[in-house]
Amino acid sequence: MLQLSTPSLRDSILRHLTYSFGKDPEHAILEDWRMALSYAVRDRIVDAWFKATHQTYETGAKRVYYLSMEFLIGRLLEDGIVNLELVEEAKSALAEFSKDYNDVLADEPDAALGNGGLGRLAACFLESLSTIGCPAHGYGIRYEHGLFRQSFVGGRQVEQPELWLGQRHAWEFERPEVRYRIGFGGHVTNHGETVRWHPAEEVEAEAFDTPVVGWKGRWANTLRLWSGRAIHPFDLAAFNHGDYAAAAAPEALARTISRVLYPDDTTEQGKELRLKQEYFLTGAALRDILRRFNNQFGDLRKLPSKVAIQLNDTHPAIAGPELIRILHDERGIPFDESMDIARNTLSYTNHTLLPEALESWGEALFGRLLPRHIQIIDQIDNEHANRNPSRTQSMRADHQVKMGQLSFVMAHKVNGVSALHTELMKTTVFEELHNLHPDRIVNQTNGVTPRRWLLACNPRLAGLITESIGEVWVDDLEQLEKLEPYIEDAGWLDRYGKVKRDNKVELSNWMGQAHGFHVDPDMIFDVQIKRLHEYKRQHLNILETIAHWLEIRDNPDADWTPRLKLFAGKAAPGYFFAKDIIRLINDAAAVINADPLTNKYLKIAFLPNYNVTLAERLVPAADLSEQISTAGKEASGTGNMKFALNGAPTVGTLDGANVEIRDHVGAENFFLFGMTAEEVMERRMVESHAQKAIAADPRLARALEVIREGRFSPAEPERYHNITGNLEGADYFLVCSDFSDYWRAQREVDAAFKDQQGWARMAAFNTARSGWFSSDRTIRGYMKDIWDAKSLLD
Ligand code: F55
């Protein structure tokens, strides 16, 4: 490595502006400044990156590989600046050239290479792995189009393609020399013991590397994303015959594979291209992992002691059969031994128990695309059944390939993402497998990185904390408990309250400028931001809002606690019910915000195009965190943790990690309501449960009635009959049954918020007691209980 003295950030920016981008300060546009700053920061990241790579190699340490179809990383420049502690230097360097730091940061495209929680978790994990100094790679797909851009037209969601690569960014290094051939289709031949797959079609996976730097630049790992390339990019024969479209066809075909992220977060569509993407990612990652392992160690029987591969949900589950195919078919290791090596190397995280989200592929499609893998899966299934004679289920029932079952059998550890979710795994989807392998399921409750979700996004609060207890909390978040004594100090608590109030003013100003939406920062900022889904129950929230509005209208002079209901979130393009909920919220907002009788007490905003960047604005300014899923349905949630950490108490059900958040922050600092997961299962058996709940609560009945009669859609009164009909009928997610208790909890919120000091105490206890929800703690749990991996910084 070159040992040069580090130039100042200012000089480095100017050097890159001049020599990397060919601009002088007079002619540089904002993007040039952003790129020059990014390169200046990147240079320093690269130093840490090389150091980490060399240390990993020299120590022969075990490496962790995180395979995920999604990495919802968002913008990266601020992450780098914050982790290298360059904030002040960057601000003053830009100021010298009359550039505003925040304008420059805001110019970066937001890389939305994921749908929601699962993808964001992968991004937080990468940052924690680097902060901890655990040698690791993330493997994913370099989608040209991330998650669609959302706008509203007449209150309805409209999707536009997202082209994050349309602008320059500084973070990836193309590795044209790192390419692997990935095959599809074809046939299988048998020569005695030797089985060979002969794919009919092949594409090339090309690597793009992004360094991920940890806190204080002590370590940096790699996110390696694969891009599809044609092996023979151009069909010259076709071109010479004058068929220009056919000439370009191989290139187009190969590129489609990494063209677009599937926008569904809960419904499995079973599409051929999706299965191709899954094998493309997994096949390329495994070749890369084995190449690195071979160069360093050689003996494949030692694989599990040097390599841990984590499957982020079942999406890369083909890793099991693919690893066996390589070990057995290509390297001649006996099948049962190959299976054991693979299992000891692999582990699997489950993120959902919703039946419609569990991946299964039709055997015809699967066998056509991956003819050798389907044979191996049958052999795994047989081998597993032979070793466990009491097994009654199969991963190959109903002409399907069941990826959850396959993943479980091929993993030495299977983990849930919260305590409740992990227990439910044992009694529902994986009951039989759990009974056969009682030590396999373990819990690792999710976490979030405090660097992005407190230090970077909430500088006011981070500043107050550091001033109070020092900066130890940044990579040891449980140190936040040292704030507890300060909470008893009225002066300190005032400052804590003022931080929140300043954050709310900042958000109000932004909403005014960006969306022409003006709100009083003294209202309760009540926030529900997440993907749209019936189980997350945004419709419960809007029903309560409508009922509250009607109540205020009945008595407009009473002493109401002013409230802003903030929503944001995307619906899967084909999920029409969820899209109707968005439209209902927007329609209700238009009517209610315009009501002069009520609008100083109640306002509604649905901000478009929710993404990581918007979350970073909203989380620090929230007073109240809405976590209101039907108990048993939200595996964990991670937004819930971000809000608690930033001082927004939760109104929520006993679902996912809410249970553990309440245990940590204290029941008195959490607004609990609703049925438990057990009660939910019982209530579903009760005949006409929704009708009974409606009959018992006149507020609910009236809210449903005004929607049904078209108060928010006068031009089309029946517009929301699908929603009201669903709620009055099957109401699978028990919106009606939980309504009354939700109403009660919300009125407790109103009363509590009137006592501003009492509220600040509650908020501060949420911050002080949320340290356990750091993804550093989660990653250390994986390292110890699942990967048997060590930090090279300890
Ligand atoms: C994406 C694609 C498919 Cl095919 C299926 C699911 C998804 C997805 O995005 N799932 C997801 O985000 N699950 C969430 O994972 C979080 C992290 O563990 C949990 O906190 C959250 O409860 C869960 O819904």
UniProtKB/TrEMBL annotation:
Catalytic activity: [(1->4)-alpha-D-glucosyl](n) + phosphate = [(1->4)-alpha-D-glucosyl](n-1) + alpha-D-glucose 1-phosphate
Positions carrying N6-(pyridoxal phosphate)lysine: K642
CC cofactor: pyridoxal 5'-phosphate
GO BP: any one term: glycogen catabolic process
Protein location: Cytoplasm
PROSITE patterns found in the cross-reference section: PHOSPHORYLASE
Transmembrane domains' residue ranges: none
Any Gene Ontology CC annotation: cytoplasm
PANTHER family: GLYCOGEN PHOSPHORYLASE, GLYCOGEN PHOSPHORYLASE, LIVER FORM
Protein name: Alpha-1,4 glucan phosphorylase
